[in-house]
Amino acid sequence: MTGQQRERRPHNALFEREQEIATTRQAVEGLCTRVAEGRPAQGGLLLYSGEAGAGKTALLGELRRMAAGYEGCTVLHARCSATAETVPFHIVRQLLQPALAAMTSEQREELLGGWFDIAGPALGIAPPVGPPADPQGVRDGIDWLVTQMALTRAPLILAVDDAHWGDAESLAWLASFAVRLGDLPLLMVVAYRPDELPAHTPAFQELVGARGHRPVVLHSLTPRAVAELVRAALGEEADDPFCREVWAVTGGNPYETTELIAKACDRGLKPAEESAVLLRELGAAARGSGLVTRLERLGTSATRFAWAAAVLASEVSPRRAAMLAGMSPAEADDCADRLREARILTGVETLEFVHPLIATAVYQAVPPATRTAMHGLAAWALTNAGLGAAAASRHLLEVHPDGDAELVESLREAAREHLAVGAPEAASRCLERALAEPPPPDERAAVLYELGCSALLTSPPTTINHLRSALALPGLPKELRVDATYRLSQAYAHNSQLEEAARVVAEQEENTPDGPGRMRLQAAHYLWKGIQLEEEGAHERSRRLAHLADPLQGRDNAERAMLALRAFDAMIRGEDAVRVTELNDRVLQDGRLPAEMSWTNSEWGFEIPSVVGITYAYTDRLDQAEELFNEAVRSFEISGWRGAHLAFAHEFLGMVHLRRGRLDLAEGFLREGLRLADRLGPGLPIQWDGTCLLVDTLLARGRVDDARVVAETYSFGPPYPPAMVMPDAPSVVGRLLLALGRRKEAVAELEAAGRRLEERGRNNTLWAPWALDLAAAVAPEEPERARALAEQAVRNAARFGTDTAMGEALRRSARVVEEDEVLPRLGQALEHLRRSPCRSEYAAALVDHGVALRRAGRSGEAEAQLREGLVLAEECGAEGLAATAREECASLAGEEGQPVR
């Protein structure tokens, strides 16, 4: 080959890519120019889609070259690998670690702030220790870091190549973070093969397939473009049949075309028709078995070194590859030189394959026994280097099962590390592989237990299967058997199988000796039974719970859990609130949750603290309820629990503000809770609570249309979930239907709710106000029935005894009583609500009283009540009530000939 031919050899795949380059330039300029000019910069998402060898990597390289022309532009780059897609946060670490490595530890901690302990392990800058991390919290921590980097290093470009091989955790983060790009000076560029998108991350599939994100599709080169490449490398004398055959052999694939032309240069092939028949043989050497044959021609040592590099896959250390290949450093250096010359490897201190197609072909060519041995050596090397079991786990997953107890322990340790960084799926893979080893017989049950726990938050059905298997084996230690049963019941509950959740703990309870463990199972049984919407035997269950819990003093956590459930059940049944709060107070220590029953304690879960706070909220102990749920928000945020737990905490805080009458604050917390819940997927129990409370709040604000929109958005209505909702969902649905003027539907819904609740003795008029709404609905046609319903509600409220319950029942019953009873009843309601912490209910009573006084001809008294009610309604955010008060004040002024103020 002549020197002139060497100089003409094509070195890129950007031929016939003018439109793609223009789109790339527009995206880079649009970001960088605006930042340079001090204008608000909007980021975006740029997608490159194309088959293997279509030139995606070359286009990303051109993007990086463009970005380098702008002062201050930061480009963070990652390239995925087929053999590293099981490594959690592999892409994220490739993207961010170079920037983080340039900082001091103090700078990293300052940049991440409170997110350091949460996201640091996933980023590889903090050890993976501690309890399992919430994947959503880890993603939020990475969001924070990238946002800070975008704001302080603008403009910022994140480029990810071969995303179809990305790890599930990183792709989930990319998909979730993409929605924020429009608010940041950040461009995210992702290249992928459309036919190889991973099934493990549907959110990423949705991202690249969304109608609003149209990818730049890289098509094959035309025959004309291939001819240009051929003549640029081999000379203008290359004839048309030769050029056409190059195109036919490669199909216009840029990588294969470039490689074929390069081989023709190396062979000194004459670019004429008579040489065209040799092109197919040369083309075969660029891929598959042909490439393997070409590799083997380099010699046994070079082949073995390439195998080692393929096993290591990414960020290949020459020294580590030499160790896997069983050769000296000098021999390894010689092999690396030969592989670079053959355009198989590139790089010096860190090696990588020239193209993923080569890496895949070489890895598949490694004999299975050799590949397994090399993976074992790689795992040993990584562990000895102090990189941890998780780093070695991707190699351990490839080792053949052989009953190795040490390997089982390494995989269990890797699973714990994966859980600590927020990668439960990776932990499950390690534990499943440990089971296949298999573990020693006396450890199998424990591995199954760990496997079940690893999937508790991500896949309740998987947890159920594994924990049932663990409990069926005799080898599960006694201390784990109670915990496994408790977690199994949680998984059933999370899977909307409340009856099964209650049954499984009841069965285990029979075989558990007296003590805290047995009482823990009893508490779980009463919890799952007590929150069933359609519970059978509710009266008997409440009687047994009262008999068991009433004598307890709260000496340990099991007793405290039983007391919390007894207080909650008594509150739902509408028993004496003084007794209810006395039971609830025994749960706390010095007014606070015991440390062993904190919001993030895994032994009891967040359900027990939740029922304590809910009980206080419905018994007018709102200060304590607010303190508890504020503590929940703080605890979950500090621990990085940013999923269902934090959503529930916001929703329950919203409930407290609703009970206080701070309707604007309630709406804010509830919308935030639903926003957090929406990230987890549709149809979850948490969305029922949030939707129910938000609809109730919007109705209290007088915003009926907004309430209807929320209800339609979340399909709020029958069929209802098997678990109780706060407040009672059918009662709120009936209230909404009544507000929308759909009276007949409201009556049917409220009657059904009433039958269900009365059968089970659930008579709390604040949690389930069905009777008062039904009374209002039937009053025009059945006034006597309406009065009977209202009187029953008043009696139930009196039995419960809080000022809010009594005041609300009296106020609302005044709408259906005889005319001469209206003012006395409203006067009684005012007396109670004046002492109540619920300011919006007091405002409603003032306005109702003012309206009644006006109708009775007592205008002076009416005006005072209406104006006081108006001021309070406005403070509470009760817009509809305030509007009513203004109208009444205006009517009063008109009647007296006074100007309206």
TrEMBL record:
A molecular function GO annotation: adenylate cyclase activity
KW Nucleotide-binding (keyword) present: yes
Organism: Streptomyces triculaminicus
SUPFAM superfamilies (alphabetical): P-loop containing nucleoside triphosphate hydrolases, TPR-like
Cross-referenced PANTHER family: TESTICULAR SOLUBLE ADENYLYL CYCLASE, TRANSCRIPTIONAL ACTIVATOR DOMAIN
Name of the protein in its database record: AAA family ATPase
Keywords for this protein: ATP-binding, Nucleotide-binding
GO cellular component entries: cytoplasm
Every Orc1-like AAA ATPase domain range: 14-189
